[in-house]
Automatic annotation (TrEMBL):
One of its GO terms (cellular component) is membrane. Keywords: Leucine-rich repeat, Membrane, Repeat, Signal. PROSITE patterns: LRR. InterPro entries: Leu-rich_rpt, Leu-rich_rpt_typical-subtyp, LRR_dom_sf, RLP29. It is found in: Membrane. This is Leucine-rich repeat-containing N-terminal plant-type domain-containing protein. The keyword Cytoplasm does not apply. It comes from Gossypium barbadense (Sea Island cotton). Residues 1-20 form the signal peptide.
């Protein structure tokens, strides 16, 4: 008798799951989502083509309808994920997406969505991942996106977004990964969310200083990629002392000075730094040699002068060193050219003396004496 009861409950459970259980507002939102995409961009074998509303989206099993692209809650009543296949869907993101209030993931990456990101997206209070990368979204990033308190990943990279970053970006207290690279964003950096692990804003038109207040309290930040913008001024010593910092790419900006302090207690996780193609003046920062795990350093094509610090050549962790395109003088440390050296990179296009012509490190050749003389307003001396 006991086994019979369990069997009947099992059958009843699966019969109920096979019925239409999805909340009507979720179904209408899915219908609006699909209808906002050009029919001509939906191949017959695609995820969207399988969305046949003659069946319930969360019916179990899906079999031939809703075979991919959507996921449902355990009780089969709510849509929790939309993850489209990257096959070139073209259309706009409907404002009715706001009805999917239990959505945790929205991933439309690598398609041809265009138009604005609807401000109604702020209704998706359970959203943890918003990935719209590699589409053609335009207009500004809606300020309402900062209402998504559960958001952990925000990736809007490789679109045509313009305007300024939302001022209250730091209100995204759960955000860990932010990638807005390869857009047309302008203006300054606002204060950033304190739980951030990775920040990528490459290839925009952002400007101004990189200030300490922007990064205040970011004790978990590991990766900063701000290359190919118009940031300027001095990069303060506080920046490289961020306690969890590992990788930094600030190349192709307009920084004029960089301050480097020794890491506190000699401890730092910093592994790679790229400050190439800026306008940095002064001597090479000798304190980079005190960062114990630093393996890649680029300061190429700046306006640096003076000699190469001896500490650079004695640093066992250093594997890649690019100092080419500056006005460095003197004789490069002999350790760079020892038979057991593992350093690759370039010391070329400087004003160095005695850089062995047979060493790959010395390519390209040094600047002419006339250029170096003008740079030092007379004979360059080490």
């Amino acid at each position: 008798m006991f086994n019979l009861v369990h069997f009947l409950l099992f059958v009843l459970h699966h019969l109920l799951q096979a019925q239409a259980l999805t909340l009507p507002q979720d179904i209408s939102a899915l219908k609006a989502f699909k209808s906002s995409i050009k029919q001509s961009s939906i191949p017959s074998w695609s995820c969207l083509a399988s969305w046949d509303f003659s069946d319930d989206p969360c019916a179990v099993p899906h079999r031939t309808r809703f075979i991919c692209g959507v996921s449902c809650s355990p009780d089969a009543t709510r849509i929790t994920q939309i993850t489209l296949d990257p096959i070139g869907y073209s259309g706009q993101l409907t404002p009715l997406i706001s009805q999917l209030t239990q959505l945790t993931t929205l991933d439309l990456s690598d398609n041809y969505f265009f138009g604005r990101i609807p401000s109604s997206i702020s209704s998706l209070r359970n959203l943890q991942t918003l990935t719209l990368t590699s589409n053609s979204f335009s207009g500004s990033i809606p300020d309402s996106v900062t209402a998504l308190k559960s958001l952990e990943t925000l990736d809007l990279s490789h679109n045509a977004l313009s305007g300024k970053l939302p001022k209250s970006l730091n209100s995204l207290t759960s955000l860990k990964r932010l990638d807005l690279s390869y857009n047309k964003l302008t203006g300054f950096l606002p204060e950033l969310p304190f739980n951030l692990l990775e920040l990528a804003l490459k290839a925009n038109s952002l400007s101004g200083y990189v200030s300490k207040s922007t990064f205040d309290g970011l004790t978990r930040l590991e990766v900063v990629e701000l290359s190919d913008n118009s940031f300027s001024g001095t990069l303060g010593a506080w920046f490289f002392l961020l306690p969890s910092l590992q990788q930094v790419d600030l190349a192709n900006n307009s920084f004029t000075h960089v301050e480097i302090s020794k890491p506190a207690g000699g401890n730092s996780d910093l592994v790679a730094v790229n400050l190439g193609f800026n306008k940095i003046e002064g001597n090479l920062p000798a304190n980079f040699a005190d960062y114990p795990m630093l393996s890649s350093l680029s300061l190429r094509y700046n306006r640096l002068r003076g000699a190469i610090p001896l500490g650079y050549s004695k640093k066992k962790s250093l594997r890649r060193l690019f100092l080419d395109g500056n006005f460095l003088i003197g004789t490069p440390p002999a350790e760079f050219f020892a038979g057991d050296t593992e350093v690759t990179g370039s010391l070329g296009d400087n004003c160095l003396r005695g850089c062995p012509a047979n060493s790959q490190l010395c390519s390209p050749r040094q600047k002419s004496y006339a250029i170096c003389k003008r740079a030092y307003s007379g004979k360059p001396r080490s």
